[in-house]
Amino acid sequence: MRARIVALLVTAAVALGPSLLTPAADAHLLAGPCALTPAQGETIEHLSAREIRCAVGLFGPVPGGAQRAICIARRESGLVPTAASRPSGMYVGLYQHLDAAWPGRLAAWTSPVWRLPSSPFSARTNAIVTIRMVEAVGRWRDAGWPVRGCMDRPPTGAG
């Protein structure tokens, strides 16, 4: 009888799965990496810098650490995740990825279980894809981003 009860409870737990978790725990598990909430009054640039720090912390190290990663994003987009090159819009997002290359990069450098936004205009997704690319090849330049102007600069502004 005891074995039946245990089996019934295990079956119920498997069937109900994530709904047995508390709402806060469930939201955390479904959110994936670097699911940051903007602080009251926080600028998009500051939030983008926090997203980059998180991505470097989870998926780095990268040369120059978070400081260089933020510097490069500042140079590429002004830390504005909705930035696009003008007039063509050929390069998009925080790190100005080639728009045509984005779907392949998203597939290669993220996991569906993370449930990240698929848009290159998501600071979180763009930062994670970029940091994973740089970490894998070992150098910013080899991943497509020159480091000019971002060599051991002291942090400024949102960085």
Cα radius of gyration in angstroms: 19 Å
Average pLDDT over all residues = 84
CATH top level class name of the largest domain: Mainly Alpha
Q: Return the string of H and E elements.
A: HHHHEEHHH
CATH architecture of the largest domain: Orthogonal Bundle
Distance between the termini: 62 Å
- How many domains? 2
User: What form results from the Cα inertia axes?
Assistant: globular
In which range does the helix fraction lie?
A: 40-55%
The order of strands across the largest sheet is 1-2
| Unreliable sequence segments | 5-30
CATH topology of the largest domain: Lysozyme
Give the biggest beta sheet.
2 strands, antiparallel
Residues in β-strands, percent: under 5%
The assigned structural class equals mainly alpha
DSSP strand count: 2
Number of helices: 7
Task: Note the main attributes of this structure.
two-stranded antiparallel ribbon; globular; mainly alpha; single chain; 159 residues; 7 helices; 50% helix; Lysozyme; 2 domains
Plain-language structure description:
This protein is mostly helical and 159 residues long. The protein folds into 2 domains: 1-31, no CATH class; 34-143, Lysozyme. The protein is 50% helix and 3% strand. It contains 7 helices and 2 strands; from the N terminus they run ααααββααα. It has helices spanning 2-16, 23-31, 44-59, 65-77, 102-109, 123-137, 140-143; strands at 91-92, 97-98. A hairpin with a 4-residue loop joins strand 1 and strand 2 (97-98). The radius of gyration is 19 Å and the shape is globular. The model is unreliable at 5-30 (pLDDT under 50).
